Amino acid sequence: MSKELIVKWKIKEAEIPRILALLPELADKTKNEDGNIFYRIYQSETDPGELVLHEQYVDAEAAEAHRQSDHYQQIVAAQIAPHLEQREVMAVRKLL
Fold first, then answer.
1. What burial letters (b/e) apply to 10-39, b meaning 16+ CB within 10 Å?
2. Distance CA 38, CA 82 (A)
3. Which residues make Cβ contacts (< 8 Å) with residue 83, sequence separation at least 6?
4. Which is the most buried residue in 28, 31, 43, 81, by most CB within 10 A?
5. d(C-alpha 96, C-alpha 46), whole Å
6. What is the DSSP string of 48-90?
7. Where exactly are the structural domains of the chain?
8. CATH code that applies to domain 3-92
9. What is the pLDDT of residue 37?
10. Residue 90's pLDDT is what?
């Protein structure tokens, strides 16, 4: 069964440009993971520091492999997470 996530980040205002510059590498490497189905990042039209990530993996193990990957640890854990005001992760399933 696939694993689908909606992740919401609120970036500290002073860090927005630096973090946005990290996203292309993160997205590219994530999209190339064996278990990734899709990985999309959205930015609010009214608040440039508010991002929504929509991710889907073939299963829970692939999602966990993503969190343990070198690029996740080096980019998200080390360089992005410390500069977030808020972070929400919601596992979802498609109804319609």
1. ebeeebbeebeeeeeebeebbeebebbeeb
2. 25
3. 11, 12, 15, 18, 19
4. 43
5. 28
6. TTEEEEEEEESSHHHHHHHHHSHHIIIIIIIIIGGGEEEEEEE
7. 3-92
8. 3.30.70.100
9. 98
10. 98
Is 52:3 a contact under the CB 8 Å cutoff? no
The sign of the CA dihedral 64, 49, 17, 54 is: positive
Distances (CA, A) of 5 to 41, 49, 74: 12, 20, 20
CB neighbour class for 50 (10 Å; exposed up to 12, middle 13-18, buried from 19): middle
What one-letter code names the amino acid at 54? H
Q: Which two tokens stand for residue 78?
A: 């080390």
Its pTM surpasses 0.90: yes
pLDDT in tens, the chain (96 residues): 999 999 999 999 999 999 999 999 999 999 999 999 999 999 999 999 999 999 999 999 999 999 999 999 999 999 999 999 999 999 999 999
